[in-house]
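Appendix B. Extra example for self-study. Work through it before the problem class; the solution is given directly after the inputs so you can check yourself.
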Amino acid sequence: QKEVEQNSGPLSVPEGAIASLNCTYSDRGSQSFFWYRQYSGKSPELIMFIYSNGDKEDGRFTAQLNKASQYVSLLIRDSQPSDSATYLCAVKKNTGFQKLVFGTGTRLLVSP
Amino acid sequence: EAQVTQNPRYLITVTGKKLTVTCSQNMNHEYMSWYRQDPGLGLRQIYYSMNVEVTDKGDVPEGYKVSRKEKRNFPLILESPSPNQTSLYFCASGGLPEQFFGPGTRLTVL
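Solution. Structure tokens for the complete assembly:
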């Protein structure tokens, strides 16, 4: 079992729709969770992080965390073609200083 | 402008020929790290450094070396590259949650 799992996609949504990206993790003791966006050929950039159960909103993005189910999700409202990218879920390990474990990413395609 | 730079951006080399990928940051960060990204495997940490002269192994350190003689620089050294080190490499700077990634170095080892 991978430590962080994501569906590779592609997830296709029309412009204006809500895109829902999901991630599960195996270490029940994990406390910090991150979503990165990576455009093709570019480096990852942080878009959201969440530490507590529940929802955290930032503009069109909402991160959701359910520690009991070991589940993290990212919702993108009013999806735009410019949101088309690969979204990486990352979990901070309890062992190792500042250590992140990444999922393999979900490719999102937003069609005009 | 705050940035992380890597050089070279693209490199094709042959098995066994030593190479160094440089990484430099201008944000005075203590923490820096190196990742490789491979299809189906995601980003995996190679080495990290908590400060000058303090480095430690990540998940996939075999075949790599690092040094941290200055705070701003964290080079990745492949002393005898092999084809299985063909990958996309990213340097990252800064502690969580704000970890800034460099632009990447695409390495091909023939």
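Self-check: Chain A touches chain B at residues 4, 32, 34, 41-46, 49, 88, 90, 92, 97-100, 102-105 (CB under 8 Å). If your reasoning did not lead you there, revisit section 3.
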